[in-house]
Amino acid sequence: MLVLPAIDLLDNEAVRLLQGDYSKKTVYSSSPEKMIQVFEEQGATLIHIVDLNAAKTGKSENEKTIKKIKEKCSVNLELGGGIRSVENMKFYDGLGVSRFILGTIAVEDPKIVEKGLSLFGQNRIVIGVDAKNGYVRTKGWETNSGILYKDFLNTMYAMGIRHVIFTDIARDGMMEGPSTQLYKELLTEFPDLQLVASGGVSSTQDLVELYDQTDGKLFGAITGKAIYEGKLDLKESIRILNQKREK
Question: What is the pTM for the complete model shown?
């Protein structure tokens, strides 16, 4: 199970939003590329980036920062937020992004998902399922799609999607622990899904419990605020999970 440090970009700064509320942001750095260099030094092999400007409006304001990040580090990047066309994917592919996270567009135009799979393959197309009260939310979490997340997952799975990031919005940024039972259920229903847990990871112990209670079947877990606020030691967490995997 990988530990994916998260960086949310808003106006070229690294921020965190409380439960996706753009009016409740905390700025952590005006130089996100420096943060990623630290994550790489601590052992991260895949870093999760969200373009919050693009997630909300469909237009990125952070392209120069994403380019700078890639120039300053060699770690793999996955990027979400506002990727709503094949042209977007091709552009970010040109910047060296490894994995493209499709959220809103996967709900509104599944054909884009099919085209992405055809062009880039299963391992580079990731579906971001952001859920609250059982329903998928879109456009930076601000819109209720009216689609139950289980129905949406079944549709994506049938299409050939195997990489999914599932965010429990109610847990995000709350530092109250992840929805472990939910991830167990998803892995039981979709046993070959490469599932990444997102939302609520507040300590190394949370990561260990996620690993243990899913029998090590999670592809990874995303954590952001806990690292920034010194509640989770990234290097130590990676060491512990690697040790458990090797047993």
Answer: 0.91
